[in-house]
Amino acid sequence: MNIVYATDDNGALGTGVSIVSLMENLPPGVHADIYIMTDGLSGDNTTRFHSLQQDYNLHLHFIDMKDKYTDFPVGSKWSAATYYRLGLAGELPATVERALYVDIDTIFNRDISPMYESEFGDCLIAGVFTTEDLSEESFSRWKREMNLDRDSIYINAGVILYHIGRIREERFESQVFSWAKNNIHRLSWQDQDILNVCYQQRILLLHPMWNICDGAIWSIRWEGVKSFRNNPLKPTDLLEAARRPGIIHYWGHPKPWHPNSIRQDYGLFYKYWKKSPWKDDIRDFRKQNDSGRMFISKMRCLLGKGKRLLQGKHQ
After folding, report:
1. How far apart are the C-alpha atoms of 16 and 49, rounded to whole Å?
2. Is-contact 133 227, C-beta < 8 A?
């Protein structure tokens, strides 16, 4: 099993905790090759990553990405690492036939083997239709801007299964880079837009349990699926994803390892953080939290959910 992350020192803790959650949920005997694409890591973080090989059945591979993708625009929301997933086939060893790219802000909650072995058919990548509450207006506008038809799909790029062998055979990544460089300045979600446009006709849709936001889980458990009425995902699939999430994605900010973060995962990230080589950082994390501010944020969150729930009952 080949798993790929893109990170630097800022995301090392999140990456490490995600790897721990992956291995804790795989059956005994399943080996994982973990590829970390990075433009540099501190000696301390590198040592912590290597220690994972002593505790789990995995082998780490570091891919040097220094000075790559320098001609792509970056900013406060996107670093060069955002684009690394566009060129996986060219960076991974020739022996790799398929690989799962995962964002660093994810937690595995079950064995991913069935998803990893998905049949691609004629598709090149597989992903989950975004579990955001899409407005019909914004989604239609994006399709027009990207020159896509009304039946186009839009997957979240935080969890992508790649048919690496076939992408190499078809030299598809050269087409991706060509389109990206010609259209990069009119994109809203950078790499995610690029993947959706370039692979549009070759995307296999996965069950939403394999990439669901913690906020979506919370909303569905509180309110049901009515807030996702503009999302084409089946209500039964959304309900199952909220009850039995396979991969939880903490998109947005702050991340669960940032001070004063209110994430709605019932302590799941914290559970795996305590098992990771970064567990010693928990004490500093607690000291940096403002308990009063976090209490107020939690109350606002609960009151907001309760208000919407009551409004739904009176509609």
Report:
1. 7
2. yes
Question: Beta-carbon neighbour count of residue 18 at 10 Å?
Answer: 28
Residue tagged 């973990």 (tokens):
34
Does position 249 have pLDDT exceeding 60, yes or no? yes
Q: Which residues pair with 248 in a beta bridge?
A: 107, 212
Which three-class secondary structure state does DSSP give residue 229?
coil
- Could you tell me what percent of the chain has a pLDDT over 70? 83
Q: How far is CA 114 from CA 27, 55, 81, 210, in A?
A: 12, 24, 28, 11
pLDDT at residue 134 greater than cutoff 80: no
Q: Which candidate, 312, 226, 302, places its Cα nearest to that of 264? A: 302
**Within 10 A of 312 (CB to CB), how many other CB atoms are there?**
13
Q: Which of 129-143, 248-262, 288-302 has the highest mean pLDDT?
A: 248-262
Please classify residue 164 by burial: count the beta carbons closer than 10 Å to its beta carbon, then call 0-12 exposed, 13-18 middle and 19+ buried: buried
Give the H or E element holding residue 249: strand 247-249
Q: Are 277 and 60 in contact (CB under 8 A)?
A: no
pLDDT tens-place string over residues 44-99: 999 999 999 999 999 999 999 998 888 776 765 667 788 899 999 999 999 999 99
Question: How many whole angstroms separate alpha carbon 218 and alpha carbon 256?
Answer: 15
Distance CA(101)–CA(250), nearest Å, equals 15
Angle between helices 43-55 and 12-25 (to 10 degrees): 0
Is the confidence at residue 207, as pLDDT, over 80? yes
* Parallel/antiparallel/unpaired status of strands 58-64 and 99-102: unpaired
As given in the structure block, the two tokens for residue 236 are 């039964």
Q: What is the rounded distance in angstroms from the CA atom of residue 87 to the CA atom of residue 198?
A: 13
Q: Exposed, middle or buried, 255 (CB in 10 Å: 0-12/13-18/19+)?
A: middle
Angle, in degrees to the nearest 10, between helices 214-223 and 235-243: 110
Are 257 and 251 contacting, i.e. CB atoms less than 8 angstroms apart?
no
